[in-house]
Amino acid sequence: MAVSLRWFSVGTLLVIALLFISVKASKEKDQPVQSRFVEAEELKSSKNSSMADRSDDAWNEHAVHDPEEVASMVDMSIRNSTERRKLGYFSCGTGNPIDDCWRCDSQWYLHRKRLADCAIGFGHTAVGGRDGRYYVVSDPSDDDPVTPKPGTLRHAVIQDRPLWIVFKRDMVITLKQELIMNSFKTIDGRGANVHIAYGACITIQYVTNVIIHGLNIHDCKPTGNAMVRSSPSHFGWRTMADGDGISLFGASHVWLDHNSLSNCADGLIDAIMGSTAITISNNYFTHHNEVMLLGHSDSYTRDKQMQVTIAYNHFGEGLIQRMPRCRHGYFHVVNNDYTHWEMYAIGGSAEPTINSQGNRYLAPTNPFAKEVTKRVNTGDGVWKQWNWRSEGDLLLNGAYFTSSGAGAAASYARASSLGAKSSSMVGTMTSGAGVLNCRRGLQC
Prior knowledge:
By secondary structure, this protein is of the alpha/beta class. The chain is built from nine helices and 31 strands. It has a ten-stranded parallel beta sheet.
């Protein structure tokens, strides 16, 4: 379980102490994840017959088998969508291609599902519930995680059919147990002030095509040792969950956009155990220690397939480390605004490829925490071979990015998912990060 460190004073001794705690916590985190492995296998087999018939080698039937092919497809998709957007349709001119795709439409509430066509990056094919009906959440309660009431968020997300889930009014939803999502779901918080807070939070496990947009997710707590329903036909025993804001476990084709996340018991977003084809965009992260973990463990090599785009996010006040912390896969960190960290911003182990482009990094005043990057528990002779690069980043207040590797073109191609804009545009592109104030008849 990660150690929560809210306050951090300047000084060499405390920095060293925090580094020690971080290493210890990272090792301890593997144990509870392993204890959930058996129940995860049961949940995976319960989703549907096609998922139940997998062999051991087919760990995630929706996983990306050829990352280079995916990178090529993403590039072609971005070129095509860019050409469409040149027509000026709904263009706000912010330079943020996701927001420019939909935010200027004052009739957005009549065209909600158009959002699904605005995704970019490695998660750009996530359609969520675009091809299904609307489901209106009218009841914020979560009285029975095994038999959820119609009209609740839990009842909506477990259904076997595609659904675009919206909210009737403002609400605070305190979940008794993890909200275990099913495939082809969009949770769309636009038009309401929706908080998932003070209880369990969201688990996306062995499912595909999920969009989460416009939620305030905070103060998530460890829960578990209880029965929880994951579909209309299945419920099962869940051991203790760490208290992540959003946890991806063997998930694929996931888009997390315009959410505000803070102050959870463990990570704000974790993606592990073969998760891939993920875009994390336009989110606002604040007041947290270990922000984002991408990759289960150094020994878990199935995460070599992982491809994650992290774009147009604002990493704000009260953050300490892991923005993200990566293992094995390919990570495109592009046009984000890093205004706060206390230990480091981007870390990794087990030879991840990190492609940092067009970001703005503002270092803290602490002279011992100016470095953007951190290689975790790895000697110089090893990490110097890893492909980590900084291209067009704006480094402020003494910030510096330690690059490494020979710059293999194929490796960076697999870690490229969209065209980076100039770092001078980051302030404008990320000015709307987090939950938007969307009201009917007005632009968001």
